[in-house]
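[job 4417] fold queue: 2 targets
>>> target A
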Amino acid sequence: MSSLPELEARIVACRACPRLVAWREEVARVKRAAFASETYWGRPVPGFGDPDARVMVLGLAPAAHGANRTGRVFTGDRSGAWLFASMYRTGYANQPTSVSADDGLRLTDLWVAAAVRCAPPANKPTPEERDRCLPYAREELDLLPRVSVIVCLGAFAWDAALRILGGAGPRPKFGHLAEARVGAYTLVGSFHPSQQNTFTGKLTEPMTDAVFHRARELT
């Protein structure tokens, strides 16, 4: 088995999905006007956090002008701002903001990753792209031996976690604060902290905090 740094190096070098490679690199060249002076990461984004974590947070994929720009998962976009603020309030992060890979953010007892490691067009990976990428998350989980809880941000991540763990029988239904025991792990569902959910009030700060409080109770 490789180490986390070795896995990170393989993830960053991956070019297995031509459509995703083309998109992430095009975004990095064209850029968004607000970030025109910045050098975009433009590569797959590895996981980030505490190697002794008992909780893994699994998202969908890097945002085109978020992690695909900064090189750190959920860093530099509004979804990440919402997520890390909640982690700070619930004791998993040392600061409430996440703007760049060198901003001093540290996570305790928690690891953050994405089911798909490249930014996809329209934020929608194909099933084939998902399936090519999921072995990275499975290997990452194997290299985090203390993890017992997986927080799944949205239905895509919930489904991805079930695929990673290979649970038999009926597939548990996703929902906010839904729980499912799969082997040695407990999945906890959370609505994704996208603007579509946070701007409409479908997901509130107390609702997000409740997910992390529940994750701590389960560890």
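>>> target B
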Amino acid sequence: MHHACNTCILHPASCILYLLLTAHTALYALELPDVVSGLQQRYASVETIRGSFQQTYRAPGIRREESGEFWLKKPGLMRWEYRSPEEQLFVADGKESFLYVPRDRQVTVQPFSAADLHSTPLRFLLGSGDINGSFFISWEKEFKPRTQQTLLIRLTPRRQESGYAFLVLEIDVHTYDLRRIAIREPGGSTSEFFLSNVVTNTKLEKKLFQFKTPKGVEEIRLNSEQ
């Protein structure tokens, strides 16, 4: 939670100037290599991570927002509980992933290993991957920060088969915590994950990453080639 400073409470105009000055200082006091190094070092020792997320999808004529809670554990375990506007559950147990939609009484199952996780933007949260070796890196100019005291960098894949045009990472200038991941797809649509209440290296129960198809629910199995 962000707390208002005394300057903001007593002198709103001064607060605006203060924020502009501090934002400028924070941005240019860091070089791109320092940001990338700080981000990778921040998550190198992370074994587990949990928090809240808000996911926003934008495409021409479409805007969809969803939110919930998530849990991740090295090397490739995940649980995403979508709670609004519709309940959904995504679980990856290291071998398979399960997408369960209670309203449809249906679960989709497909292969999903740690290697599959590490080929997605979520790998940054578990300290995986060589950012410098995989991306061209630049300051971000199109997207704007969603929180104070953050900066944005753009990562453009060196290999075209990545499945996305570029990524934008919003990073805390003091802690190097990752606050937001934006994914721009080749067709122009954008998915954003805004993260909050994030806690790292807490014990997570094994059952969080286990899924058993409920009785009476249709199970659809997809192979890796579909």
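[job 4417] complete. Note on B: Confidence is low (pLDDT under 50) at residues 1-10, 13-28.
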